[in-house]
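Saturday, quiet lab. Running sequence design on the structure tokens for the scaffold JK sent over.
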């Protein structure tokens, strides 16, 4: 198993898993799902690699069903914390200035995504880096009905946490994927950031149109 040479080495999925095991995976999933400091953590590539390593019994010896169950639980719990944080902080979050690990544009991006897609955004955001970290907080700020949020949160956690892990498990048994894992992980990272790129491009075009 080779490592993904993107960003700091300690953020590489295989490095994280080999060093911290299942607990490390759950901590990253929890943090990226609803803590402000978790937006830069690997999500999709980490879950895909988790499934792949479970399939080969490397670093992870737990059965797939248990790994998926715990990952889904961590993802749902992370969003719950983000939602409750948003309800507690309220509109003040939108008046907060930029800091080293906080950018106001990330909150505004998540807010626009939420307004555009409504409650289903809770599910869709799971597959959009950065947005999936800030959206549950925005949902809390907006005081979205808690029961509605809980339902969509559970659905999103199951589809993303369980789905991407299972995908890695089965595709990891394909010779081509196993032999070109670096390229596969790079592709996952690129595909996962495309929605963000499209949203930024759309926002810039809209701003240009208003300015014109």
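Result came back. Writing it out in full:
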């Amino acid at each position: 198993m080779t490592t993904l040479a993107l960003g700091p080495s300690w953020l590489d999925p295989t490095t994280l898993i080999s060093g911290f095991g299942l607990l490390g995976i759950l901590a990253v999933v929890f943090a990226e799902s609803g803590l402000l400091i978790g937006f830069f953590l690997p999500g999709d590539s980490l879950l895909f690699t988790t499934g792949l390593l479970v399939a080969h019994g490397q670093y992870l010896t737990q059965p797939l069903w248990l790994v998926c169950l715990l990952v889904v639980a961590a993802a749902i719990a992370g969003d719950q914390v983000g939602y409750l944080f948003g309800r507690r902080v309220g509109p003040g979050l939108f008046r907060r200035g930029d800091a080293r690990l906080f950018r106001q544009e990330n909150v505004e991006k998540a807010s626009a995504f939420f307004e555009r897609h409504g409650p289903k955004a809770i599910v869709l955001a799971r597959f959009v880096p950065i947005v999936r970290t800030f959206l549950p907080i925005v949902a809390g700020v907006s005081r979205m009905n808690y029961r509605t949020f809980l339902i969509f949160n559970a659905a999103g956690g199951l589809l993303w946490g369980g789905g991407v892990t299972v995908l890695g498990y089965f595709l990891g048994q394909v010779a081509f994927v196993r032999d070109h894992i670096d390229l596969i992980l790079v592709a996952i990272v690129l595909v996962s950031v495309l929605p963000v790129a499209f949203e930024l491009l759309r926002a810039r075009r809209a701003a240009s149109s208003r300015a014109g």
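Notes for JK: The radius of gyration is 17 Å. The chain is about 70% helix and 0% strand. Ask whether to fix the surface positions before the next round.
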